[in-house]
Design goal:
The complex is a heterodimer of chains A (about 750) and B (about 160).
Chain A: E1 2-6, H1 26-31, E2 46-52, E3 58-64, H2 66-69, E4 74-78, E5 90-92, E6 97-99, H3 100-107, E7 112-113, E8 119-125, H4 128-136, E9 139-144, H5 151-155, E10 181-189, H6 192-198, E11 201-209, E12 212-213, E13 221-226, E14 232-236, H7 241-252, E15 259-263, H8 279-289, E16 293-296, H9 299-305, E17 308-309, E18 312-320, E19 326-338, H10 345-352, E20 360-369, H11 383-401, H12 405-411, H13 431-439, H14 442-445, E21 452-461, E22 466-474, E23 480-484, H15 492-504, E24 511-515, H16 532-559, E25 566-569, E26 572-575, E27 586-587, H17 588-593, E28 602-610, E29 616-626, E30 633-643, H18 650-669, E31 700-706, H19 727-739, H20 750-761
Parallel strand pairs in A: 1-31, 2-16, 14-15, 19-20, 23-24, 30-31
Antiparallel strand pairs in A: 2-8, 3-7, 3-9, 4-8, 5-6, 10-20, 11-18, 12-17, 13-14, 13-16, 18-19, 21-29, 22-23, 22-28, 25-26, 26-27, 29-30
Chain B: E1 4-10, E2 13-19, H1 25-32, E3 51-54, E4 57-60, E5 73-75, H2 88-95, H3 105-118, H4 124-130, H5 142-160
Parallel strand pairs in B: 1-5
Antiparallel strand pairs in B: 1-2, 3-4, 3-5
Helix pairs in contact in B: 2-5
The chains are: A alpha+beta (about 750), B alpha+beta (about 160).
The structure holds FE2/S2 (inorganic) cluster (2 copies).
């Protein structure tokens, strides 16, 4: 079931936007023709393989690769000695800034290994078998060091320190000793102590979550070729070809102009492919060997060495008046960053209370390095973790107040004009409409069966805009090629084509959307932050408008009328000069056919830095059933409502919502990184890192609320990230309903549920 | 390490390749025969992205050794569309937007076709359990299951027509 609730303002006459055409890249993807990262080969390519640390924390005493180099068929071996030793420098990649030195040290360890799976050397050889054999011949001598995995032990003064140069930022008094605490974030409003003193009802709890992986099904893969003239080609699966280009240039000390990156089809990313792991190594191996080098991660590599998101320990305390007004909140968030600073705790602090209008609060966040893989962005980075804690506490508050959980949220909801907890003033948000949609749903009114529980939770994500380029080229038959610089991770080509078709007034089948390589289209920030349909879509629409202006000028010239007397309507130029009633409309195809006579090819490009991405809100409703014998949990019904601004292609918006829900349910019920005593990941495979399969889930119902974003030509808001924010708490709150016990540690796996049931009985 | 000459039938056509003893069928298809529709998501039989039919049985090609397919019939995603026409499952996947990144799609289509060949009228629960060996991280399975059920209905009608 899905429904769309329109606000009158969102209704305009649209012919393409809001319909559900078949995606333009569809046939390639159902026939196996689409070319993903590992599907591409270059003539003469070698196989690249990485030697990874077996230790969670160790000093590299020496690396001896002589026996590997001596093996016939080995063409190159590289270590950190083959990469420049970079100075600390922040690079703003759009959604989050990265330190280039850390990035480089994560790609290839220098001096120390910081987690099990950290790359220490790489080889290129004529075959996988030879490459594997070569790895076994590289002798690395380690001096193991004490390690620390969990966030609170890592914060302790006697914890082993990962980086002796790291001093906590954000404290009133700068520390004099190095620690694992990279940064403290703090956001305060009002007088929280006084507000708690005056509160009628207070709830508080401690919450924990474990590191979880994005779990894209396609492992990282690339092919890189270094030519004798220093020009490099990279083919890779990533969320941003320009990101890959920049990072490769920085990490290898190359000129940006010497690198061309072609984006492959991408088999999922969810934020995990917003950074580089293989590409700089493949380039270094190609430079050293003189051959193209192909590298593909194994699933084990993906788990051990690419970004999960943080495990966290959180403390939330809420105070309210007896009428349900939440007057005070303290939130403390401690996030695992992995081996280098940069957990999403900053975003978690900003989103934690973003759905609530609260006069007094203190939010503190700690970014803490640990001997685990460096965290990478994961869909609404940080927000689901904070929402798990805050929404669990709000649920407990509703119980204590004897209030309906939606009514409590409605009472404290942010609205247009509310100053957000993180600063700006909300405008054109659809949060209360989204709450109302769930409140009024059949699902919310339906009865529950024994052993079932129902949970509500809400979630927020900023969504971003940013820099994008789009070009439109009109062919001589009047069809259009739309070129953008954003990898299509979940169907964005369809929405680009639809927005171009809508604006030009042509059928969507006449538009072919393409994703350009870094030399064929201007710079675009990566696909992330739910920005593509908003920002790149805006560039596409503006490029189409530029084409239309050009077409009107050409028609005016042919008709010998003024530009004001030519209008563009339904895909054709119409003459409205009263003096020339005989002029028949000219279609895009007709104008394109004579472009040679009117000024040459018809083409337009637009670059922009889009501002005003509308924030998104989601409200989720989960019913689950617990088997009291086994502790097994089944999700029996799920409805997710979200303000989407304007659904360009509603099927793909629903798909984003459903996919976010599924990931969130996995996070809530099963997924977790498990480390042994030596700090090695114990479940680096899909068998033991258990993601939801088809039989784990019911149909996932969606309700799309359309409160248009006035900054976008069609009102679109980002939709991809919001839906993973509420599910963790929606599931946990449903569990509270089902078993009568608050479970405040994820995952809610069968043994944990059984333990909670036992604790309740005993 | 000498290679073994393998003769097999792939999507109805004779195919030959040289396999090292440890080579998987997935690697043979992708690297020796240039059929990259089957994907490697895990290499351990846990994701189904590499699903193919082997003598009419649904298998994870990453778990089959290439030398084992001597004399066998292999069917892959590349053989599903016939004569320039998409198979109804492929068409329904597109109509229902049952793919986002599309990486799981070839494996899911092969597995779904195996389901419908064996059980033309599955219940939703049967379809979910049959496809439980195919991980999709993007869609939450909702649209995939709808597409499979819809294709099943169409195929049943086609048969009775
Ligand atoms: S690659 Fe064969 S099951 Fe995953
Ligand atoms: S569509 Fe991406 S994994 Fe299924």
């Amino acid at each position: 079931m899905s429904e769309t609730l329109d606000k009158p303002a969102a209704q305009a006459t649209l012919n393409v936007v809001g319909t559900r055409p078949i995606r333009p890249d569809g046939a390639d993807k159902v026939t196996g023709r689409a070319t993903y990262g590992a599907d591409y080969n270059m003539p003469g390519q070698l196989v690249g393989r990485i030697l990874r640390s077996p230790h969670a924390h160790a000093r590299i005493v020496s690396i001896d690769a002589s026996r590997a180099r001596a093996l016939p068929g080995v063409k190159a071996v590289v270590t950190s000695a083959d990469f420049p030793d970079l100075a600390s420098e922040m690079h703003d990649g759009g959604e989050a800034a990265s330190n280039l030195r850390d990035l480089s040290l994560n790609v290839m360890a220098r001096g120390k290994v910081l987690y099990d799976g950290h790359a220490v050397a790489a080889v290129a050889a004529v075959s996988a078998a030879v490459a594997e054999e070569a790895l076994s011949r590289i002798k690395v001598i380690y001096e193991t060091l004490p390690h620390v995995i969990d966030v609170e032990p890592a914060m302790s003064p006697d914890a082993p320190v990962l980086h002796d140069y790291m001093f906590t930022e954000g404290l009133e008094t700068p520390p004099t000793v190095a620690s694992n605490i990279a940064k403290r974030h703090k956001n305060v409003r009002g007088d929280v102590d006084a507000a708690f003193a005056a509160a009628d009802v207070i709830v508080e709890d401690r919450y924990t979550t474990q590191a979880v992986h994005q779990g894209y099904i396609e492992p990282q893969a690339c092919v890189a070729a270094w030519a004798e003239d220093g020009r490099c080609e990279v083919w890779s699966s990533s969320q941003g070809q320009f990101m890959v280009r920049t990072y490769c240039a920085k990490i290898l000390g190359l000129e940006i102009s010497d690198i061309r990156v072609t984006p492959a089809e991408i088999g999922g990313g969810f934020g995990g492919k917003t950074t580089v792991y293989l590409e700089p190594i493949a380039l270094a191996l190609s430079r050293a060997s003189g051959h193209p080098v192909k590298m593909v991660m194994t699933r084990e590599d993906v788990f051990r060495a690419t970004g999960p998101t943080s495990g966290a320990v959180m403390h939330v305390k809420l105070g309210a008046l007896s009428d349900g007004t939440i007057t005070a909140a303290t939130v403390e968030l401690k996030f695992q960053a992995g081996a280098f600073p940069g957990s999403p705790v900053g975003a978690a602090c900003m989103t934690a209370l973003a759905c609530y209008d609260i006069a007094n609060f203190t939010i503190v966040g700690w970014d803490v390095v640990t001997n685990t893989p460096k965290t990478a962005a994961y869909r609404a980075p940080g927000a689901p973790i904070a929402a798990f804690a805050v929404e669990s506490a709000v649920d407990d508050l509703a119980r204590k107040l004897g209030m309906d959980p939606i009514a409590l949220r409605e009472k404290n909801a942010v609205r247009d004009g509310t100053k957000a907890s993180y600063g700006p003033t909300f405008q054109n948000i659809g949060y209360v409409e989204t709450l109302a949609a769930i409140r009024d749903s059949d699902h919310y009114k339906s009865p529950l069966k024994p052993n079932q529980g129902r949970g509500v939770a809400v979630g927020f994500w900023f969504n971003i805009g940013g820099e994008s380029t789009a070009a439109i080229h009109i062919s001589e038959d009047g069809s259009a090629a739309v070129v953008t610089g954003n990898p299509d991770i979940g169907g964005s080509r369809a929405s680009m084509a639809m927005m171009a078709a809508e604006t030009l007034g042509v059928p969507v089948e006449r538009v072919r959307p393409m994703i350009g390589d870094t030399a064929s289209i201007g710079y675009s920030m990566l696909t992330g932050g739910s920005r593509t349909t908003f920002a790149t879509g805006m560039a596409v629409v503006q490029a189409a408008e530029k084409v239309i202006l050009d077409l009107r000028q050409r028609a005016a010239k042919l008709w010998e009328v003024s530009l004001d007397h030519v209008v563009w309507r339904m895909g054709q130029a119409e003459c409205i000069d009263p003096a020339k009633p005989e002029k028949k409309p000219m279609t895009l195809a007709a104008l394109a056919a004579q472009s040679g006579r009117t000024g040459g090819p018809i083409s337009a490009q637009v670059t922009l830095n889009a501002q005003g991405a509308g924030p998104g809100f989601g409200v989720h409703l989960c019913d689950l059933e617990v088997d009291p014998e086994t502790g097994h949990t089944s999700i029996v019904r799920y409805t997710a409502a979200q303000d989407v601004g304007r659904a360009i292609h509603p099927s793909y918006v629903e798909g984003q919502i459903q996919g976010g829900v599924a990931q969130g349910v996995g996070w809530a019920l099963n997924e977790a990184y498990i480390f042994d005593r030596d700090g090695r990941m114990e479940n680096a495979g899909f068998l033991d890192y258990r993601m939801p399969v088809a039989s784990d889930l019911p149909m996932l119902d969606t309700i799309m609320i359309e409160v248009p974003n006035p900054r976008h030509p069609f009102g679109a808001k980002g939709v991809g990230e919001v839906p993973i924010v509420p599910p963790l708490a929606a599931v946990a709150n449903a569990m509270r309903g089902a078993i009568g016990v608050r479970m405040s540690s994820l995952p809610l796996s069968p043994p944990a549920v059984l333990a909670a049931l036992d604790g309740k009985g005993g | 390490m000498s290679k073994i000459h393998i003769t097999t039938t792939v999507n109805g056509d004779p195919a030959e390749f040289l396999a090292s003893p440890g080579m998987t069928l997935l690697d043979a298809l992708r690297d020796e025969l240039g059929l990259t529709g089957a994907k490697e998501g895990c290499g351990s039989g846990d994701c189904g992205a590499c699903s193919v039919m082997l003598d009419g049985r649904l298998v994870c090609s990453c778990l089959v050794l290439a030398p084992e397919v001597e004399g066998c019939r292999v069917e892959t995603i590349e053989g599903m569309a016939q004569g320039g026409q998409l198979h109804p499952l492929q068409q329904k996947f597109l109509e229902h937007a049952a793919l986002q990144c599309g990486f799981c799609t070839p494996g899911l289509l092969v597995a779904a076709k195996a389901l419908l060949d064996a059980h033309p009228d599955p219940t939703e629960v049967e379809a979910r359990y049959w496809l439980a060996g195919n991980l999709c991280r993007c869609t939450g399975y909702d649209k995939i299951i709808r597409a499979v059920m819809d294709a099943a209905a169409d195929l049943r009608q086609e048969r009775t027509a």
